[in-house]
């Protein structure tokens, strides 16, 4: 069946004060071909040139219909609902004004929906970090290409995908169940909409094709709602959206409701905790709000969460205010998680959070070695080497017998990691193990060029420990001793390279490095 014979799609694009980007979004929808019968652009009372851009596009593209709202709705739900009400295609697809649909997205989704008679079809999405054009897959491994899920309750983990934009919806299904977004100023409206969709128990088909490119512009003057986390109001809105979604899912299926609670503990809570920052006022407000919310969770849902998430919840519950070592908690919430020393024991000899907060770290003894939240310190050891110190973790790593350590550099633009030569670990008189790893940053730049990396190179830096029992552990580095100092390096190709190791994200959870030739 060619595209002209496929049932048609209505693409709903919402826009507010996005004159510089909305044209690209609409054009990507029109470029999908005849399978898209109409693009409905809803301008949510923009005060910039968005209306003019859309009207000019509509004057030359008959498939583009523009709706100008006279009052701003305050959120994304109302304009999407406006688009659904006006849609005439068999299927509905959503697109935000600062994102794009990749070529062939609508075709792939419709073919999969028709093949499996699925009211909901989902495809792959990526978060594209701009301006670097670094793509990060959204929820990798959650959706299996070719899979057909008869009931969402059969795959409760689907609640982790809260996006509405990487999915195609049968319009008749939306109308039959009265599925709409929350109206007005409701942040994270897609949490509630996707919960309502899953609660309606549709058959869900999966295509492996890339169907959505989510642009992430962290340096933009006006951040997207999901990135604008400068005050506790954003977290409060996310908590309320999750509360509503969890209630909807629990009413439809106990399995989905429980999975939604676990997802909050393992994903939402950890994401915001690792970005907690150092403002005491924000910390206190965040702590009070979060503690009150997790106190409403059933113990069974907390027990079902990962060990790292359980420990975080129990520390939250143990104190009414952020503890003095709250920074350790932000590191435990990082990805990968790290539990920084000191390591205290309780009265019974069991591992606990600290002497001041003797919260038991239950389940630590049963964690696979690869999942241990190890801490590895790193500092310069001369010009072309780094000194590594691997901390033990209540004897768990010692049981596995750490033998060697090596650095792993992964290009932030993708491609295969580069591994340094493994070096044998030796016991550190202070505890743990140490090693000196030789490597040359200039050699890494040469390897990057061979992989097609030009001009500025950016690498994530990790460390791998190989144990005598065959267990590998990969984690991030905790830089110290001037490791993050900028360096000028001789280069036979460029004359000089500038190397800048740095911490990624608001919380220093990962270490990375940029390399650039000459003045760059």
Automatic annotation (TrEMBL):
Its EC number is 2.4.-.-. Residues 10-175 form the Glycosyltransferase 2-like domain. It is an enzyme of class 2 (transferase). GO terms for molecular function: glycosyltransferase activity. InterPro entries: Glyco_trans_2-like, Nucleotide-diphossugar_trans. Transmembrane segments: none annotated. Pfam families: Glycos_transf_2. Keywords: Glycosyltransferase, Transferase. This is Glycosyltransferase family 2 protein. It comes from Streptomyces caledonius. The lineage of its organism: Bacteria, Bacillati, Actinomycetota, Actinomycetes, Kitasatosporales.
């Amino acid at each position: 069946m060619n595209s002209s014979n496929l049932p048609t799609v209505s693409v709903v694009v919402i826009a507010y004060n996005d004159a510089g980007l909305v044209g690209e979004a609409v054009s990507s929808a029109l470029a999908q071909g005849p399978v898209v019968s109409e693009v409905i652009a809803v301008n949510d009372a923009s005060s910039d040139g968005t209306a003019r851009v859309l009207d000019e596009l509509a004057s030359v593209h008959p498939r583009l219909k523009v709706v100008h709202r006279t009052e701003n709705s305050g959120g994304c739900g109302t304009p999407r609902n406006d688009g659904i009400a006006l849609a005439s295609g068999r299927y509905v697809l959503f697109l935000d004004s600062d994102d794009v649909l990749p070529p062939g997205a609508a075709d792939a989704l419709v073919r999969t929906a028709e093949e499996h008679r699925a009211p909901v079809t989902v495809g792959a999405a990526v978060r594209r970090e701009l301006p670097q054009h670094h793509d990060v897959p959204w929820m990798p491994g959650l959706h299996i290409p070719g899979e057909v899920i008869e009931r969402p309750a059969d795959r409760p983990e689907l609640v982790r995908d809260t996006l509405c934009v990487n999915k195609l919806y049968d319009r008749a299904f939306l109308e039959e169940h009265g599925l709409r977004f929350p109206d007005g100023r409701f942040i994270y409206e897609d949490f509630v909409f996707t919960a309502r969709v899953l609660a309606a128990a549709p058959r869900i088909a999966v295509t492996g094709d890339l169907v959505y490119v989510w642009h992430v512009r962290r340096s933009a003057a006006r951040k997207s709602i999901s990135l604008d986390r400068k005050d506790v109001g954003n977290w409060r809105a996310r908590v309320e959206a999750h509360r509503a979604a969890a209630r909807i899912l629990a009413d439809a299926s106990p399995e989905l409701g429980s999975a939604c609670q676990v997802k909050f503990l393992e994903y939402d809570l950890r994401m915001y905790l690792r970005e907690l920052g150092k403002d005491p006022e924000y910390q206190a407000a965040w702590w009070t709000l979060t503690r009150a919310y997790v106190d409403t969770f059933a113990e069974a849902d907390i027990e079902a969460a990962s060990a790292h998430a359980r420990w975080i919840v129990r520390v939250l519950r143990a104190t009414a205010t952020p503890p003095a070592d709250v920074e350790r908690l932000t590191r435990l919430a990082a990805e990968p998680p790290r539990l920084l020393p000191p390591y205290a024991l309780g009265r019974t000899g069991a591992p606990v959070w600290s002497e001041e907060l003797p919260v038991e770290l239950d389940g630590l003894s049963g964690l696979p070695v690869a999942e241990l939240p190890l801490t590895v310190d790193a500092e310069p050891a001369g010009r072309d080497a780094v000194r590594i110190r691997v901390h033990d973790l209540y004897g768990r790593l010692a049981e596995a017998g750490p033998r060697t350590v090596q650095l792993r550099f992964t290009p932030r633009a993708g491609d295969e990691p580069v591994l340094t030569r493994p070096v044998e670990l030796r016991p550190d008189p202070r505890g743990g193990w140490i090693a000196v790893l030789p490597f040359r940053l200039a050699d890494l730049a040469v390897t990057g060029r061979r992989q097609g990396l030009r001009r500025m190179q950016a690498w994530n830096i990790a460390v791998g420990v190989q144990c005598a029992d065959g267990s590998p552990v990969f984690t991030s580095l905790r830089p110290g001793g001037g490791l993050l100092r900028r360096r000028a390096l001789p280069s036979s190709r460029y004359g000089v390279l500038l190397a800048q190791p740095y911490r990624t994200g608001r919380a220093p959870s990962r270490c990375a490095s940029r390399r650039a030739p000459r003045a760059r």
